[in-house]
Amino acid sequence: xxxxxxxxxxxxxxxxxxxxxxxxxxxxxxxxxxxxxxxxxxxxxxxxxxxxxxxxxxxxxxxxxxxxxxxxxxxxxxxxxxxxxxxxxxxxxxxxxxxxxxxxxxxxxxxxxxxxxxxxxxxxxxxxxxxxxxxxxxxxxxxxxxxxxxxxxxxxxxxxxxxxxxxxxxxxxxxxxxxxxxxxxxxxxxxxxxxxxxxxxxxxxxxxxxxxxxxxxxxxxxxxxxxxxxxxxxxxxxxxxxxxxxxxxxxxxxxxxxxxxxxxxxxxxxxxxxxxxxxxxx
Length: 282
Ligand code: COA
Ligand code: MG
Description:
Order of helices and strands: EHEHEHEHEHHEHHEHEHHEEH
CATH class of the largest domain: Alpha Beta
Helix content: 40-55%
Strand order of the largest sheet: 1-2-3-4-5-6-7-8
Structural class: alpha/beta
Distance between the termini: 14 Å
CATH architecture of the largest domain: Alpha-Beta Barrel
Number of domains: 2
Strand content: 15-25%
Radius of gyration: 20 Å
Largest sheet: 8 strands, parallel, barrel
CATH superfamily of the largest domain: Phosphoenolpyruvate-binding domains
Shape: globular
Low-confidence stretches: none
Bound molecules: coenzyme A, magnesium ion
Number of helices: 12
Mean pLDDT: 96
């Protein structure tokens, strides 16, 4: 089993040449080069050119390179996609997707490039099942939660524990899992607050997220650590695998390991944990 780790997914404004340069040496699993909300309208065209030059120069190693284009209903969206296709990124991230038709429309423009979509509108939450179904047909790999936009459009209060957002987060993970997609959590804006950030990473892990989108390099290390299997999880997984490998358990569906009931579904979970740990260690 191999997995594409997507623990830490760092945004940077495509207009920021310094950030594009710095990203070549950062330990993020994936980079999102943003042409959308972090770039002012008057800087859009220059940002495209800056990004094209950076991607042509290369040096991003095995970090996944994702270009976030402007929404398809904006003056820049379609041209961004045409430009991004020429940059041959690993994926294109389309924002403000609200319906299955939005997914099909975006997929048709990509010329076979992998599609990621932002889940960030109230309508997208209501249409999650259809969006996920259309997405898996279109070869989409990832849902990316846009929690700032969700808060803006719903008028939820962004409390520290994200209580109001949790149903939407959970529904997005469920839809992603039902259709075999990855799900990346939203950003933590207060990037100097390390403790609050770590708590939000743990919450994302608890809700089943594959990783978290980040806005600052200082968030990468904590994020990678918290979204990797812990030592105790790996040890437990090895115990489960070893127990099922014993000859006397070869034909058993359920066994006891350290006083706990363990079924073959736990073996599958254990194998995923060890494969993930091996991938992130390599
Ligand atoms: N990606 C890569 N490098 C980044 C970065 C990012 N997202 N954010 C900051 N850096 C770099 C800076 O260029 C600086 O590099 P240097 O010191 O080697 O020159 C270093 O990290 C420290 O940056 P710092 O001074 O602490 O931050 P800042 O005040 O320059 O920028 C933000 C703060 C929030 C404006 C900036 O982090 C940012 O633009 N983040 C991404 C925003 C974004 O893309 N939003 C869209 C999705 S929500
Ligand atoms: Mg957004």
